[in-house]
Amino acid sequence: MLIPIFLVILSLAVLYFGADFLVKGSSSLAVRFGISPLVVGLTVVAFGTSAPELLVSVQSALDGNPGIAVGNVMGSNVFNVCAILGISAMIYPLRVNPRLIRFDMPVMLLATVLFIIIFRAGEFPRWAGILFFAGICIYMVYCVYKAKRGEVVEDGEEMKPTKSWMLDVVFVIAGLGLLVWGSGLLVDNAVVIAKALGWSEAVIGLTIVAAGTSMPELATSVVAAIKKRTDIAIGNVVGSNIFNLLAVLGLTATISPVETNQINWLDMGVMLGSSLLLLPFMRTGFRIARPEGIVLFLIYVGYTAYLIV
């Protein structure tokens, strides 16, 4: 039992560094080719921080563990909203860009509601996967279009390339390799732990796997909050949730349709409810204050305790 636990911890570190290398190398290459830092953030960085979720969910579905595949996406979204934003807001109150309320939040909520409607019978078929994956493509194209028109405000910090393009390529290859290895290591040992504890695949996906694959987002948002770049902290979470639902779940179901009865209405209700709760929090002075961060974090603690107990 100790060996699988150690390997899970090791896999989380591998996933973190893999995502970090992929983002660093890809961002540097993009800047070298003259792509604006904002467009890089909306595309490369969004993919990089959600790459662990993508690889873990796809591999879980292919390995015949659909509960982990879906639980990973749902659990990551709950972790992003409640734990990451909660912790970030407790560190420093988060300023909300009005664009998030006007466009990105409605997209996230629409994707969440559409997922619940389709998945209510415990199935997420291939046609739904194709529909969701098409949705992330449209969202990305729209974001890039808006950025090029200057309708999205940049954070002001320029991305700088590394010393050489060869180093960028090494970062990208190393990042992808670590992500593939780490995702396999995490899924295999999470299943072993789940069976030993008598947990279902869904519970292990909603807790250990979800929190583990969200480490890149946690690191990004916490560092952003410490540096008082709060729009990045919120944008990272909202963008990641959109990517998890549309890209991760979409591609997973496109490759291998998902079917499981281990996800219940409470799990879906917590994911939707926590996302809806963000709206009034964001609208009160266009910021998420420390007390609101505490509320979000306590929701995650309570939900996790319920799943385990």
Give a structural overview.
The chain has 309 residues and is mainly alpha-helical. The chain has a single domain, classed as NCX, central ion-binding region (A middle domain of Talin 1). Helices cover 81% and strands 3% of the residues. It has a two-stranded antiparallel sheet. It has a two-stranded antiparallel sheet with strand order 2-3.
Short description:
This protein is mainly α. Helices cover 81% and strands 3% of the residues. It has a two-stranded antiparallel ribbon. A two-stranded antiparallel ribbon has the order 2-3.
Write the layout of secondary structure elements.
Elements: H1 2-32, H2 37-62, H3 66-91, E1 94-95, H4 98-119, E2 123-124, H5 126-148, H6 165-197, H7 201-213, H8 215-226, H9 230-255, E3 258-259, H10 265-283, E4 287-288, H11 290-308
Antiparallel strand pairs: 1-4, 2-3
